Amino acid sequence: MDTIPIMRPWLPSFETLAPMLREVVENGLITNGKYVRLFEERVAAYLGVRNCVAVSSGTLALTIAMGMLELTGEVIMPSFTFTATAHAAIWNKLDVVLVDIDPETFNINPDLIEKLISPRTSALVAVHMFGNPCDVDRLAEIANKHKLRLIYDSAHALGSHYRAKPLAGFGNVEIFSLSPTKIVTSAEGGLIATNDDALAERCRLARNQGVHADYDCSLLGTNARMSELHGILGLGSMDIIDAAVEKKNVLVGYYRKQLEAHPGIRLQRLLDSTVRSTYKDFNIIIDANIFGMNRDGVAQVLAARGIATKKYYSPPVHRQSFYRTRTQCYDVALPVTDFVSSNTLTLPLFPEMTFAEVDRVCQAVAAAGEHVG
């Protein structure tokens, strides 16, 4: 029996990429060429923003964006996120203040933010978890009221919509990841999207060591350039973005019809009917007291049946070894984050997944429940 992977990237055909790859290999312009620029322009047009800056990873996109905003003091962000969200702040010598999440959407809870704002707070960092859009309007109100920078870690969300508009142009800056688990991938890479022209120019300099054409360095940068080879893959990947998101949404709908019938299993809820998620990952919450088996037990049952799973994000940031030693992260009370991270299980989901494979996963979950019954 073949294993069902947790994900499988849906890539453009080699035939569509071959002429571009052949061109750069033959002319030797494998970096600082035209295809990264074409990729940036394509994404900017899709997102409806003035600037898109391609870099070598989503982590560096967020690190550079924070640095070029010249933030100081504290930044507020959720603990239920990938470690890179917090790392970007630490690399910029910022203090991380963690806030709990909404139990239904798994996104930052706007109701809890204002009590954490202090005179040292310079920014909010919100994460569109698994591609599910945050309450953008509420976050904008809070940021404007307190004169804070608003940064979106949209690593999962290239292809998501908020109020029928692609997720970009909100806040001061948004960053996207292009790693293999994302809808749009360049194998590895990241994007900085903003309507702030001056910020975009600083980010372009920062990705190239802060060095101008005449080799004069005007700011502290790093080597975060994207190669032409990565840019070509990203450009080709943009051709299938909407088809891929649609396929994943159809599969999630099929999952829902089967899984929501099981007591003790809960799915991530979207903000409302006007948003679209990429469903970078498909997660269920397993309440062991109701379902009869905990998350880890269900994962073992699925593994025995050849079904891969993950536990995103367990442990959350405030439970990780490095962050437990930091003052602002130590022993914070984040009960919803703790419950979700301890009980969430990521099931297989990828654009080319079949309904038969979804059936197989759902049957395995049902079998786990029946086993304890």
Which strand order spans the largest sheet, edge to edge or round the barrel?
1-9-8-5-4-2-3
**Class by alpha and beta content:** alpha/beta
User: How many E-type strands?
Assistant: 12
> What is CATH's topology name of the largest domain?
Aspartate Aminotransferase, domain 2
Rg (C-alpha, Å): 21 Å
What is the level-2 CATH architecture name of the largest domain?
Answer: 3-Layer(aba) Sandwich
Mean pLDDT: 96
Q: Please tell me the total number of domains.
A: 2
Q: Quick one: CATH superfamily of the largest domain? A: Type I PLP-dependent aspartate aminotransferase-like (Major domain)
Query: Can you identify the CATH class of the largest domain?
Result: Alpha Beta
Proportion of beta-strand residues: 5-15%
For the largest beta-sheet, the strand count, sense and barrel status come to: 7 strands, mixed
Which H/E pattern describes the elements? HHEHEHEEHEEEEEHHHEEHHHHEH
Please give a handful of descriptors for the protein shown.
single chain, 373 residues, alpha/beta, Aspartate Aminotransferase, domain 2, Aspartate Aminotransferase, domain 1, 2 domains, seven-stranded mixed beta sheet, 13 helices, 12 strands, 38% helix, 14% strand, globular
Give your account of this protein's structure.
The protein folds into 2 domains: about 230 residues, 3-Layer(aba) Sandwich (Aspartate Aminotransferase, domain 2), CATH 3.40.640.10; about 130 residues, Aspartate Aminotransferase, domain 1 (Alpha-Beta Complex), CATH 3.90.1150. Helix 1 runs antiparallel to helix 7 and helix 8 runs parallel beside helix 13. It is globular, with a radius of gyration of 21 Å. The strands form 3 sheets. It has a 7-stranded mixed beta sheet, sandwiched between helices. A 3-stranded antiparallel beta sheet has the order 10-11-12. Helices cover about 40% and strands about 15% of the residues. The model has no long low-confidence stretch (mean pLDDT about 95). The chain is of the alpha/beta class. Strand 2, helix 4 and strand 3 form a beta-alpha-beta unit.
